[in-house]
Amino acid sequence: MSSSFLKALSKTLGPGRVLSGAGDLFSYAYDAALEKRLPGAVVLPRTAEEVARAIGVAREFNVPFVARGAGTNLCGGTVAPTGGLVIHLSRLNRILSIDAARRRAWVEPGVVNLHLHRALAPRGLFYAPDPASQKACTLGGNVGTNAGGPHCLKYGVTSHHVTALEWVRPDGETSRVSVDDPGFDLTGLFVGSEGTLGVATKIEVALLPQPEDVQTFLVAFPSMDAAVQTVTDTIAAGIVPTTLEVMDRVTVQAVEAFVHAGYPTEAEAVLLIEVDGPQERTIFEGDRIRALCAKNGGTDFRTARNEAEREKLWEGRRGAYPAMARLAPNVLVEDGVVPRTRLPEAVRQIRAIAQRKNLRMGLIAHAGDGNLHPNMIFDERDKVETARVQEAGQEMLRVCVDLGGSISGEHGIGADKRDAMRWLFSPPTLSLFREVKRAFDPDNLCNPDKLIPVVESAPGPRAGGPAPAGELAVSSVEEALDLVRAIRDQRGSLFIQGLGSKGLSIPAGVPVLVTTGLNAILDLDRANLTLTLGAGSDLPSLRALLAADGLHLHVAGEGTLGGILSTNASRRPPFRNQLLGLKAVSEEGELLSFGAKVMKNVAGYDAARLFQGAWGTLGVVVEMTLRLHPLPAEVLEASIPVLPNFSLLPAAELHRKIKSAFDPRNLFNPTLFSPYGD
Ligand SMILES: Cc1cc2nc3c(=O)[nH]c(=O)nc-3n(C[C@H](O)[C@H](O)[C@H](O)COP(=O)(O)OP(=O)(O)OC[C@H]3O[C@@H](n4cnc5c(N)ncnc54)[C@H](O)[C@@H]3O)c2cc1C
Q1: Is the ipTM of this complex over 0.95?
Q2: Is residue 194 within 6 Å of ligand 1 at its C-beta?
Q3: Domains and CATH numbers, the chain
Q4: pLDDT tens digit string along 411-428?
Q5: 88 C-alpha vs ligand 1 centroid, how far in Å?
Q6: Which stretches of 65-118 are assigned E, i.e. beta strand?
């Protein structure tokens, strides 16, 4: 590391805030994964301004930099390129405000997750995401990885609870964004971007009132299948517990030897269940769950009778990782996710892999979300065993992808899973991710070697058909692709319209792609509670159709689903929280595909969320995968869409960056956006 760089950092941040000794650097060479690389320097800023100044120095010296919270991520996400700069945010650790009336809190990124929980408890409030690492991990890291946790089944993951952000961008400038802003959901893009788009310096989170009652149960099962079947049955019965955590026998035995939580060590699987809400309901749900457990062969049904017993049961679950870590020098925690109904198959295949590779493995699953953690123990000094474990991990992720799932439910991609991103995303989609990254970080200095695989040659543009004109109704994705290619070949532009109910004014002579023919139901998975369908489907008719089947969409509004998403017309619940996957036609006439029919998925940028409020300026949404619910929404509130002037939005510059990544030629809905500021 050049001494002039270190001097410049010390001068900018003051004495004692820059670490460069060999011992210090070694402590920052790794996180909770296996990847190790020695950084050139570590800075410990105390304010957002200091973060910006440190980034300024890194840019001046062309040194890559990486934000680090507690370093508990399990994917090598905070390992800087050799000689790079680590920005350790532990000293930005103040809870800035708690607004109990609005149920919002502003925190700095270094606040430890559990500290926020403790600060909120006396006010009768809580912050829902509670990773099992919550004693150590920070809110900034949770934002970076879009962390989940054992209670996320009912309440959702970090992206459901972050309402605004301030972040220092890779160019050293500061941006402030909020989910309430008109335009693209930039907050949603930043959450889960693994520190590749900048460094969060202030985070606003939504708070929830503590429930009146909580009931916690532990049940033993004769097989993993039986435990998982109980999970599916519970959700199908219209009960959404806060927690449905499955642990296998290997894990339970390790846990018992470590924390003595009273878990039944002879069971093949145990299920930890928690429900909360008004007492009348928790008692009713507890009774139903007990009956479902019995039906599936569950025994030894235990109910925590008081807070101490509840805490003991949780100690067992939270102790699972350290309990496995006691058994060998290293644990590799994989993190795959599948549609919930494919869990038994995933478990079978993952176990077969571990057996074939002669590995010691315990299994934990956030089963309600279909999220599996195979924990493989080994000794990294044994290179052969380590290679076997890593190969097995990759094979297990491949199983998840093949079963319609994803390579990460909550831990992120980091350095470890970059290559596996190719299994999940097409070259055009990966190329879009690269464009988004480039738009924010053209010099590729901000956590440069994470999340997106290295080189991916996207196929050259395919030729379109003859020049289209007028109103053009498409009835298949292929027709939409052809149409956009034809427009691209003419260097023309295109308006996108659903039922035309949002009053978008379209100049005469510009072709209009009408989506209402994209209205097929492509996959209605009642057991998994997901629906994949054409984006031109009309919501009111769809609602009626589903209700006849006892199913509900928690989306408000009138018109096509594509129109409701694009105009952000579903105020409560917000559309983004119901959206699991999306396909769109890009300005190159390629099919972009994000997400899957899984409840949690943190692979890649959450680009699907950008389409909310985009008013058709990013591409033609052709398909969506949505959550279904066995019960109607408690509140369904639509808003009257107001067309924003994208060039005048407070975050206009960020909107231009996104637009330039998605649609540099301004092909889609061209009058709404003047990306180059004219
Ligand atoms: C025992 C154990 C249990 C775990 N249980 C869970 C679990 O239940 N659920 C779960 O989701 N994860 C879990 N994890 C993984 C890990 O704790 C989470 O990924 C957590 O969110 C990381 O927080 P951190 O503060 O340690 O972040 P770090 O590891 O320091 O950073 C994580 C990522 O976020 C980026 N980042 C950090 N701070 C910022 C910032 N201010 N701005 C922008 N980017 C930033 C980093 O560059 C990095 O890419 C577990 C890990 C362990 C070891």
Answers
A1: yes
A2: yes
A3: 3-88 (3.30.43.10), 95-209 (3.30.465.10), 222-402 (3.40.462.40), 513-672 (3.30.465.10)
A4: 999 999 999 999 999 999
A5: 13
A6: 65-68, 85-88, 95-99, 104-107
